[in-house]
Amino acid sequence: MTPATYRKFGKGEVIRYGIAPSPLGFLLVAATEQGLCRVCLAPEKAELEALIQEEFAQATLQPADTQLQQWLQQLIDYLGGKLTTLDLPCDMRGTAFQMQVWQALKNIPWGTTVSYGDLAAAINNPKAIRAVGSACGANPVALVIPCHRVVRQDGDLGGYRWGIDRKQALLKLETPSLS
After folding, report:
1. Is the domain of 119 the same as that of 74?
2. Residue 83, C-beta contacts closer than 8 angstroms, at least 6 positions apart
3. Which of 79, 113, 140 is where one domain is finished?
4. CATH number of the domain to which 51 belongs
5. pLDDT at residue 2, rounded to an integer
6. Which residues of the chain have pLDDT under 70?
7. Residue of 152, 159, 95, 148 lying closest to 118 (CA atoms)
8. Among 114, 134, 90, which Cα is nearest to 174's?
9. Taking a C-beta distance cutoff of 8 angstroms, is the pair 36, 18 a contact?
């Protein structure tokens, strides 16, 4: 999906989506023909229904097909501790800087964390710590792009778009020694 199409609420796009219960609440996955364009969590299914209707108000929304159901199940398996890696196609839009941060996030190994400063240094922009945090918050495909693996320099969890409790649960899932 081009940035212009996204700004037009997905006008002209066909977006398939599915919502299912997961260990961390309800999970929504949405995809274009190119891959996942949205992955998010919420305590209520209705909240996710409203989000997808609003974000892609001009798109043709369709129920999940077999492929998307498989991707949804992979994410549920990941949240249930059955998978340690996710290799799913993504169709994301963002600035060049955001794309650079999101690519760096994919390189953080399962079960480890880095600081926002470490991530800024990894993209050769060590002064962009706050911008890295903003890019993490703008991540459209949480879990697939593991922004939950970024913490503050002092080890504090910092923020998380889907709630600090979910971030803590994800890190606990990935670090059995924290159990």
Report:
1. no
2. 74, 77
3. 79
4. 3.30.160.70
5. 60
6. 1-10, 176-179
7. 152
8. 114
9. no
